[in-house]
Design brief:
An 8-stranded mixed beta barrel has the order 21-22-24-25-26-27-28-29, surrounded by 4 helices. A 6-stranded antiparallel β-sheet has the order 9-8-13-12-11-10. Strands 2-1-3-6-7 form a 5-stranded parallel β-sheet, sandwiched between helices. The protein is built from 28 helices and 30 strands. The radius of gyration is 36 Å and the shape is elongated. The model is unreliable at about 140-145 (pLDDT under 50).
């Protein structure tokens, strides 16, 4: 089952900085539809909770008017059916554990919260609360059902002869009233100990002799007349006359088959995922612990495989949650088919699965299983007469090499899974110790990125584009630079991929576009000869539904002529959704905005797509330009791209020109424009203004 969508989130937190960080984490994980309500005291919280219903509550345990377990109890009293996640300090884990006993679903330690973990904790808490409510409802229903079922009743006289049997007792014993009446209790009401199979002493005699109410042992079974066995429970009491003397006894008994089966089912439900029926995290952790204990005795290894589905969210959002649920069930069955009966396939929630491989001979055995799972998951899933295709990425950790407890092994397998995704998805990756270092570094960059815009740590540098015939500067490409107060200069190669992964590329991209247009307008107002400003657009930006609105709004706000703006997109960005891309590009061109294909030659490079897209320029990737003089094949590619551009009446711009030989080659073959270190490195705005004033014609026309 897909994670329940969190639409209404209620945060009780008196620290504005912590509240802002939590809001940003949630937004940056793609949950932008979440309505975020924030109060600072428990008093305010109780007023809100009395009037509004929320999907989840995040509660700080250190509020000014309530702290610790008192805050938890007040929150539970105000919203007993709402999932609760508590926020606590590093030294308060004992308090957090007590909060779980008071009804909280989970806890997070301040200072150790990261975006993916926050979202996962909230969604798991919602799922856990849903399961708890379902189990409670199931238990209540069972209790009401049992209360409504008529009990069997049998009465005897002082000698143990049956004097009365009701309809339920007739059915349960197989004896009608007429047949049972006058017979000894032991003939009709045969009961055994289910474990020993020995007869249980007559409870009627016991009640009469002890002159008080007694009960059968808890594991008693009734042997019906036809030999069928029914587990029962009962209450036996003596019947007295007016003088208080025992004259007989009455037994009230009931069939507890349903109750016992339901108890077993409830135990099963508490340890299994309610959608797929697979073991849940609690049962998995228990089995991992047992596997770790047994492994050294048997000289074996244990492996954990952490699986995350590639593209499941798109299927779930586009085809609906019922389809997504069936797909998860199909995947769960296939994973079970890939392992031995001694192994465990567990669903962790959402689209994540963890597989325990116990008693392995060699770590390579995990690789064999991982490859089998990659292939099995990738095969078409027939859901509602539709063939669905999906892949998975797998991270592998091995005991004892990568951890000696379940938590560490799962964490390291999770880390390895993300490395598999970075390596191209639909692959598996064994955990390596260096991955934690990279994961921590990436997390640090992401955390710092979240404040970079707010703290004005970004700047733009500009690299000139040169007309190779006249030597004139025809325009500038805007390139973002990040100077962190502690890290110093952070390379775009480091932070741009992180920004794309966590969604920060959207606000950063808007900032770059706005600043570039504003700067170009300032140069033009100053009479400087800049004709166009080029801005790189990421795939996430281009596919965002507000992209066109943002571009046109920025042009309107800055007053820049749309014809002076050139947007650079890679081939892969356009090809992924070609039909939609054509529509967006046509809207841009209709307003005068120019379009350039960046890094041309490294992607699809399809002539049919070039003729389909309304574009103005091709930019030859610098990797080809740098090899002009040393690699004949790349020189041929450059020549072909120039000829293609000329045939299609497109401007051709060579990137990364660094030597006179490269410049000469490009001029000789009719390349129209170029940029690169040979002319100028990217420079700040004031230095670029100087270049516009002085020009760099000599470098071109020498």
């Amino acid at each position: 089952m897909s994670s329940k969508s969190i639409k209404m989130l209620f945060l009780v937190e008196d620290n504005h900085g912590d509240a802002r960080l939590l809001r940003e984490m949630i937004n940056d994980q793609g949950d932008r539809d979440t309505e975020f309500t924030h109060v600072q005291t428990m008093g305010e919280a109780e007023k809100y909770l009395a009037e509004w219903k929320f999907d989840i509550i995040l509660l700080d345990l250190g509020l000014p008017d309530s702290s610790g377990l008192d805050a938890v109890r007040r929150a539970r009293a105000a919203a007993p059916h709402t999932p609760l996640v508590v926020l606590t300090g590093l030294d308060d884990e004992t308090l957090a554990a007590q909060a779980l006993k008071e009804g909280a679903q989970d806890y997070l330690i301040k200072g150790q919260i990261e975006a993916r973990g926050l979202i996962r904790a909230m969604r798991y808490s919602v799922e856990r609360k849903t399961m708890e409510e379902a189990l409670f409802t199931e238990k209540e229903r069972a209790q009401v059902t049992l209360n409504c079922i008529g009990d069997g009743v049998v009465c005897t006289d002082i000698a143990g002869t049956i004097t009365f049997v009701n309809l339920v007792a007739e059915v349960m014993t197989g004896w009608s009233y007429q047949e049972a009446s006058g017979r000894l209790m032991s003939d009709v009401f045969r009961i055994l100990d289910a474990t020993t199979r020995e007869p249980i002493p007559n409870p009627m005699e016991l009640a009469i002799n002890m002159d008080r109410t007694v009960h059968l042992p808890s594991n008693s079974i009734l042997i019906r007349r036809d030999g069928f066995e029914i587990p029962i429970e009962d209450s036996v009491a003596p019947i007295h006359d007016r003088e208080g003397l025992a004259t007989g006894a009455v037994i009230v008994f009931r069939d507890v088959s349903v109750a016992r089966a339901m108890a077993q089912q409830m135990t099963h439900s508490a340890q299994h995922d309610f959608l797929t029926g697979l073991p849940n995290r609690m049962l998995l952790n228990d089995r991992v612990g047992r596997a770790i204990l047994l492994a050294p005795r048997h000289l074996k290894k244990v492996a954990l495989l952490f699986l995350d589905l590639d593209g499941f969210k798109h299927i779930n959002d586009s085809l609906g949650h019922p389809v997504g649920d069936k797909l998860l069930q199909s995947i769960g069955k296939r994973l079970v088919d890939c392992v031995r009966s001694s192994d465990t396939v567990s669903r962790q929630g959402g689209d994540e699965f963890v597989v325990l491989l116990s008693e392995m001979e060699h770590p390579e055995d995990a690789a064999i299983t991982a490859r089998r799972m990659l292939h099995s998951v990738a095969e078409a899933h027939s859901i509602n007469d539709r063939d669905l295709h999906i892949t998975t990425s797998i991270g592998v950790s091995v005991y004892p090499d990568d951890g000696i407890d379940a938590e560490t092994l799962i964490k390291n397998a999770d880390t390895a899974m993300y490395q598999a995704k970075e390596n191209g998805r639909q692959s598996y990756q064994f955990f390596k110790s260096g991955m934690n270092v990279r994961a921590v570094e990436r997390q640090s960059i992401e955390e710092n990125l979240r404040h970079a815009l707010e703290y004005q740590e970004f700047t733009l540098h500009f690299q000139p584009k040169i007309n190779l015939k006249t030597g004139d500067i025809t325009g500038a490409e805007a390139l973002i630079r990040w100077t962190h107060p502690v890290r110093g200069i952070v390379s775009p190669a480091q932070f741009i991929p992180v920004a794309e992964d966590c969604g920060l590329i959207l606000p950063i991209g808007i900032w770059v576009l706005r600043e570039a247009c504003k700067q170009a307008k300032e140069w033009m107002n100053a009479g400087l000869p800049v004709k166009t400003i080029a801005v790189n657009i990421s795939g996430m930006q281009f596919r965002n539904e507000k992209f066109l609105h943002d571009v046109f709004a920025i042009l309107s706000d800055t007053g820049l002529d749309p014809a002076c703006l050139e947007l650079e997109l890679t081939e892969s960005v356009l090809i992924k959704r070609a039909d939609t891309a054509v529509s967006v590009l046509q809207s841009l061109r209709a307003r005068g905005v120019q379009i350039a294909i960046d890094d041309f030659g490294t992607g699809y490079s399809s002539l049919s797509y070039l003729t389909k897209f309304p574009i103005d320029a091709l930019k030859i990737d610098q990797s080809f330009v740098r090899q002009i003089s040393s690699t004949p094949g790349d020189a041929t590619i450059v020549t072909a791209v120039i000829s293609m551009g000329q045939s299609l009446k497109l401007r051709v711009v060579a990137e990364g020109v660094e030597t006179l030989d490269e410049l000469t080659f490009l001029q000789r073959h009719g390349c129209e424009e170029a940029q690169g270190y040979y002319f100028s490195r990217p420079v700040p705005a004031h230095k670029f203004a100087k270049l516009l004033e002085t020009g760099i014609r000599e470098a071109v026309l020498r």
